[in-house]
Structures are given as structure tokens and as C-alpha cells.
Amino acid sequence: MSAIADDAAVSVVADAAAVEAVADDAAMDAVQRRLMFEDENAAQRKLFDELGIPAEALPVDRFTPLGRMLYKAPSDGKWGEHELDYLLFVVADVKLLPNPDEVADVRYVNREQLKELLEKADAGEEGVKLSPWFRLVVDNFLLKWWDCVESGTLPE
Q1: Which of 68, 96, 98, 145 could be stapled to 103 by a disulfide with Cβ–Cβ 3.0 to 4.6 Å?
Q2: DSSP secondary structure string, the chain?
Q3: Parallel, antiparallel, or unpaired: how do β-strands 80-90 and 64-74 relate?
Q4: Which residues touch 147 (CB under 8 Å, ≥6 apart)?
Q5: Distance linking the first and last C-alpha atoms of the chain
Q6: Would residue 60 be called left, alpha or beta, if left means φ above 0 and alpha means ψ between -120 and 50 degrees?
Q7: Is there a contact between 5 and 89 (Cβ–Cβ < 8 Å)?
Q8: Antiparallel, parallel or unpaired: β 10-15 and 64-74
Q9: What percent of the chain stands above pLDDT 70?
């Protein structure tokens, strides 16, 4: 997760992937099992499970839906991702408690710092790695939306 403004804006991409039947769920950990089988709001659930942000800190009516993206990425040969992700945005001052099983690093960056981070990731410098979906969002949407986020006109 990368926040996109100095004022602690939180950019959230919550996936709403269709889930195929799981033949053997014994290999799933408790978090995966809860995500697969409990009925709860996906965006709030992702925020809590990945970033430790409780649902009451970000009510659903504060999210701005911005579109969706079909995403596919291979992983380790056994697992991969192929999902339809809904892009939701919210600006809030929240306390983060990242889940180390889900999030390797968290940074608040301004526009120039994000561009520098992208360059480092592209060059393989300083061990900077970005998730493929985040890179797609940045390249296709985020940099175009930045001025709207800063001016508060994104919902328009």
C-alpha cells in the first residue's frame, strides 16, 4: 500500500475477485478461510486484514468508486492471480497496523517521491519491488488523478 499525499491519504484498491470452489480448504490459513466464506464488506475487510484499519474508521459511504480493472499476474508457478478489481478511493487520517503476511512495506509519498520509487523499482535498485496491480493502477490512473485528489475534486 502506498499513500499518495503528504496529508496521509490512503489509496485503496479492494479486490472483488470471483472465487472458484476450493476442493481442499485444509491448506488455507484462518485469514484465507474467513475471506473466502464469511459474508462481509470486501473493501473494509481488505483494509482490516491487510492494513489493520478497522471498518468503523472508514465507513463504506466515504469510498469513491473510480472504476474497475481486470488483472492477471503469474506468481510462483503454483499460484497466481486473475481477478476483477474494483478501484475505490478514500482520503482519511488513519492509524496503520500492516499485516506482515500481506504487506511488505508502507510509505507515504508525494508525487515526486512516487516517481522516484517507480524508477528504482524499474531499475531493480535498493530492493524496491511493487506489486503488479499497484503498478497498473499507477500507470493507468493514479498519476492522472493526483491533481484531483489534492484539490478534492476526485468524485467529480
Answers
A1: 98
A2: -EE-STTT-EEEEEE----PPPS-GGGS-HHHHHHHHS---HHHHHHHHHH---GGGS-GGG-EEEEEEEEEEE-SSS-EEEEEEEEEEE---------TTT-S--EE--HHHHHHHHHHHHHTGGG----HHHHHHIIIIIHHHHHHHHHT-TT-
A3: antiparallel
A4: none
A5: 24
A6: alpha
A7: no
A8: unpaired
A9: 75
| Number of CB atoms found within 10 A of residue 7's CB | 13
In this prediction, residue 27 has a pLDDT band, given cuts at 50, 70 and 90, of low
The rounded distance, in Å, linking the Cα atoms of 109 and 139 is 16
| All cell numbers assigned to 53 | 484499519
The grid cell for 75 is: 506468481
- CA 129 from centroid of its chain's CA atoms: 15
Burial grade of 145 (CB within 10 A; 0-12, 13-18, 19 or more) = middle
Count of other CB atoms within 10 angstroms of residue 61: 5
pLDDT at position 107 is: 87
C-alpha cell at 78: 503454483
For the residues 30-59, what does the mean pLDDT come to? 80
Distance from C-alpha of 140 to C-alpha of 83, rounded to nearest angstrom = 17
Residue in the structure block whose three cell numbers are 499497484: 134
